[in-house]
Design brief:
19 helices; 39% helix; elongated; 4 domains; 17 strands; Rossmann fold; disordered N terminus; 5-stranded parallel sheet; 6-stranded antiparallel sheet; alpha+beta
């Protein structure tokens, strides 16, 4: 009996201990929950007003402030214009972009300061149904880390959101061009009202009652789906662009690339000459360096006497490196000391961003830059599409009459012979014939452009100019072009049997290169020219090779040919190759598409055209 009692007491004690431990655990969980809530409260989102510098801890407070102080009813505008989620994002980014430029978001009138703008504000109803933020560019956040974009739709409960979505569908129906047809077909009873207003009320009744519109308004749903698809494609494209940009600027974080560019004496010495040998251009100038990399051009500009150098670099790593390089060389700007040391050489400021976002990171007044410098050229000149950014900087920051370095760019082309291919290599590999590999390699090359050095002795035709760019005057859409040009044999191939023992010279494709000019328009003391020609010292750009599907036989104009043979063959060589090349920015961001049409023309004027070839670089 005593043993049983002891067992009972021991059991009771264990139960009590377990209960106490559970209570302690619960208290600890409550404390942890309180801590978590406290941390959450401490990290309350910070919402910036759309029109002024006021900040709020909730979107509810922000929109109330906008309504009372700025006569802007966000939810009212969303309802009036039937904006979906993405339309609301566009509205927010559009308003922020307009206010940043002291412009009215309704009438787009410009003002001297934000205060004048505040006194002018229209209310949304004055827009008369006109939507100014339709462009998909407004899907891109105007302000970095804009909390409002993530929270503006969270003020209403799910039922309200569902009702709102239904009303958006209703408004989509109301605004549809097919609404009258829908009513006239008797699918909606609009006889009790006149015109669109009656249709509106009837559709609203159907939506409110929960009746399915799938059957009666298939065309409207299709239109809505098409709109959603268009927006979705825009978002996907924006994500792809961001991914390409991240990879592109990330690649420039490799020091190997920068060593290759800095070691390119043709490139670096040309820029150095243009910046250091034109004192009337550079003395006390404000300089904008787009895509500064290591900052070498900014250092040249500072050395040349610039009063301020803004070095813009989108790669985070290289922006940090350029800052350190400028600091190590005593050129990094310390603007807090400028008043005390007005003649200081510390003039270089490095800004980590794309130039399109520069005004969000540093104060650069519009059209205040004297000299815009950039090493923007890619393979075949236009690969990487950085010229877009240079033209943007020109239009937004360069003074009227300000200098662009370089200010011209020209693309050239010529036909190349067998030595410009890999065939000679494969015909003798340590004494062995591997020409079967060479033939396959050349066939593959007819589908993919090759960046390589072509020796001048392998150029078999005269050179032709494809396109000339004036960076001062050109527009962005002029980057895409089509050029038709004729190629004829070089004079030495016409008369020297050493080049063409059989009287026939084989052209295997067309090689492109470019030149950029630092002309006397701006470089008055010392103009300069950067050439990537096969006839000039080689550069890191090399040349860009486009190989024909099959080589074309060429000969001098006075040669006798077989009139029955195919033009471009050995029996009937062409005297002229006429090429039509189009270069356009690819749908894949920062790439270019190249199409090449080729026609052989005989001495008698007969022609033969080959199928068009498409390349992507």
């Amino acid at each position: 009996m005593a043993n049983e009692l002891n067992e009972s007491e021991r059991f009771a004690k264990e139960v009590k201990i377990d209960e106490e431990e559970e209570e302690e655990e619960e208290e600890e969980q409550i404390e942890e929950w309180d801590d978590w809530q406290s941390e959450e409260e401490d990290s309350v989102l910070d919402f910036l007003c759309l029109f002024c510098t006021s900040r709020f801890d909730s979107t509810l407070a922000l929109f109330k402030h906008c309504s009372l102080d700025h006569s802007f009813d966000f939810h009212g505008v969303v309802r009036n214009f039937a904006l979906d989620f993405y339309g609301s994002i566009k509205l927010i980014n559009y308003i922020r972009s307009q206010v940043a430029e002291n412009k009215c978001w309704v009438c787009r009138r410009s003002f001297q300061c934000n205060g004048d703008l505040q006194n002018h504000f229209h209310v949304g109803c004055e827009m008369d149904g006109k939507v100014l933020w339709e462009d998909d560019s407004y899907l891109k956040p105007y302000m970095e880390d804009d909390s409002l974009l993530h929270s503006f739709a969270c003020d209403e409960d799910e039922d309200d959101c569902t009702t709102s979505m239904d009303k958006e569908v209703m408004r989509e129906l109301i605004s549809s061009e097919d609404l009258a047809e829908l009513c006239s077909n008797g699918e909606l009873d609009a006889q009790t009202e006149i015109g669109q207003k009656g249709c509106c009320l009837e559709i609203e009744r159907i939506v409110a009652s929960g009746i399915s519109l799938d059957k009666s308004s298939g065309s409207f749903h299709q239109k809505n789906k098409n709109e959603q698809l268009r927006v979705s494609r825009g978002i996907v494209a924006a994500r792809e662009i961001k991914s390409v940009n991240d990879n592109y600027f990330g690649a420039y974080g490799s020091f190997g690339i920068h060593r290759e560019m800095l070691s390119d004496k043709v490139r670096t010495d040309t820029y150095r000459c243009a910046l250091l040998s034109n004192p009337t251009l550079m003395d006390q100038a404000t300089v904008l360096d787009v895509g500064c990399g290591t900052g070498i051009l900014s250092l040249f500009a500072a050395q040349a006497g610039a009063s301020r150098v803004i070095a813009v670099e989108a790669s985070a790593k290289m922006a940090t490196v350029a800052t350190q390089v400028a600091k190590d060389n005593g050129l990094l700007a310390d603007w807090s000391m400028r008043c005390e040391q007005p003649d200081s050489k510390n003039v270089v400021s490095v800004v980590h961003c794309m130039v399109e976002d520069l005004d969000k990171h540093v104060q650069v007044p519009p059209h205040s830059v004297d000299v815009l410098v950039s090493e923007w050229m890619g393979y075949c000149l236009l690969y990487e599409s950085m010229l877009n950014s240079v033209l943007y900087a020109r239009d937004h920051f360069l003074k009227p009459g300000g200098a662009i370095l370089p200010d011209t760019a020209t693309i050239f082309g010529a036909g190349f012979g067998r030595g410009g291919t890999s065939l000679p290599f494969w015909e003798n590999v340590y004494g062995y014939d591997m020409s079967c590999i060479g033939k396959e390699v050349v066939e593959d090359a007819s589908c993919v452009p090759i960046v390589d050095v072509v020796n001048s002795q392998d150029i078999v035709t005269e050179s032709a100019m494809l396109h000339f760019f004036d960076l001062v005057l050109m527009k962005q859409d002029e980057m895409d072009f089509t050029s038709t040009f004729d190629l004829k044999l070089k004079s030495e191939h016409m008369v020297d049997s050493a080049y063409a023992p059989s009287g026939v010279t084989w052209c295997y494709g067309i090689v492109l290169w470019f030149e950029t000019g630092f002309t006397s328009r701006f470089c008055k003391e010392t103009p300069a020219l950067l050439s990537t020609s096969p006839y000039s010292p080689k550069t890191h750009w090399s040349q860009t090779i486009f190989t024909f599907k099959e080589p074309i036989a060429m000969t001098a104009a006075k040669s006798i040919t077989n009139s029955s043979a195919a033009i471009g063959s050995k029996e009937c060589p062409a005297t002229t190759i006429r090429s039509r090349i189009s270069i356009a920015r690819s749908s894949e961001h920062r790439s270019i598409d190249v199409s090449m049409e080729t026609t052989g023309i005989s001495s008698t004027g007969r022609k033969h055209s080959w199928p068009v070839q498409i390349f992507n670089l």
